[in-house]
Amino acid sequence: MSLIIKKITYLFIMLFIISVISFGVVHLAPNSFFASGELNPNITEESIAHLKAIYNLDKPLYIQFLSWIGNLMVLDFGISFTTGEMVKDEIMQRLPITLVINIVSIFFVFIISLFLGIAAALKNGSKFDKFIEQLSILSFSMPSFYLALIGIYIFAVASPILPLSGILSDDNLEGFAKYTDIAWHLILPVFVIVFGGIGTFVLYVRSLTLEILKSDYIFFAKARGLSRYTILRFYILPNLYPTIVTLLGLSLPGILGGSVILETIFGIDGMGLLFFQSAMSHDYPVVMGILIIGAFLTLIGNIIADLVLLKLNPNSMI
Q1: Does residue 67 sit in the same domain as residue 139?
Q2: pTM for the whole thing?
Q3: Cβ–Cβ under 8 Å, residues 276 and 216
């Protein structure tokens, strides 16, 4: 119980610090949503002043922040400048698809990294090992947006095998056909995230597996005549899980941050695309809402990773 209280306290402290930094950075950005209106001779100064008063922008910055924090306590992120809708509603409409993409991607990164890393270590020095090592280097050195553009050209333009953008071919689809079509549209975005994410993990798993294979308990396990499957399941994997879970928790900010670029490129109407559009139009309430929700999801992911690590290794210090 004390651990849970510590984690919840840590969550709220970090969210407050992130909110202070995000609020300051967003309001220090040049120009504003009302800049175009101020240059428009058809809009009077009284109209602009009235709009700023509606959105509480006519008050000192610290008053705006305290008001925003107060509203945040009741999950009120304000009203969007561009659409006039509640920010919470706009985010909740787009959050599910972003979560699906990232959760599926993290799952495949975990599985593929374990498989390739262990396989490369077990065949250390072979052509397969060298191939996996070069593939990993290519993975973390290639920008995700560049890989996305190459994938679009090869699989959607030159050979129209996969959809070019969006998540649905027909809005009238329902049931199993709808979910199948969504999955078909998400193949390319998920592939880009997974390929860009496995490089570092594969090298870590390979390196850790090589160290484990040099340990005394592996030597005695082989001397007892245990099969490779038994050694893998009971000796190698239990020693790999804690490190991999920790690395996955630390990689969550990068994976969620990558959604902004990929959702924009693939035209996926998720939280990443909404953030990009809101940042371009200086829609402060939406930008702040997405930053806070993104930070919350990242912190929750890290806490879950810590709890899983504690379950795997009760002697670990969190």
Answers
A1: no
A2: 0.81
A3: no
Contact status, residue 81 vs residue 88, Cβ threshold 8 Å: no
> Would residue 142 count as lying in a domain?
yes
Helix, strand and coil content of the chain, in percent to the nearest 5, comes to 75, 0, 20
Q: What is the pLDDT of residues 265-288, one digit of tens each?
A: 888 888 888 888 888 877 888 888
What mean pLDDT value characterizes the chain?
A: 82
Phi, psi of 79 (to 5 degrees): -120, 135
Among candidate residues 73, 105, 127, the one where a domain is terminated: 73
Domain that holds residue 263: 95-312
How far is 102 from 194, CA to CA, in rounded Å?
9
Gap between the Cα atoms of 236 and 157, Å rounded: 44
Q: Are 310 and 18 in contact (CB under 8 A)?
A: no
| Number of neighbours of residue 149 by Cβ within 10 angstroms | 13
Q: Which residues contact 5 (CB under 8 A, 6 or more apart)?
A: none
* Residues contacting residue 175 through CB under 8 Å, at least 6 positions apart: none
Please classify residue 24 by burial: count the beta carbons closer than 10 Å to its beta carbon, then call 0-12 exposed, 13-18 middle and 19+ buried.
exposed
Residues 179 and 258 occupy one common structural domain:
yes
In a domain, residue 284? The reply is yes
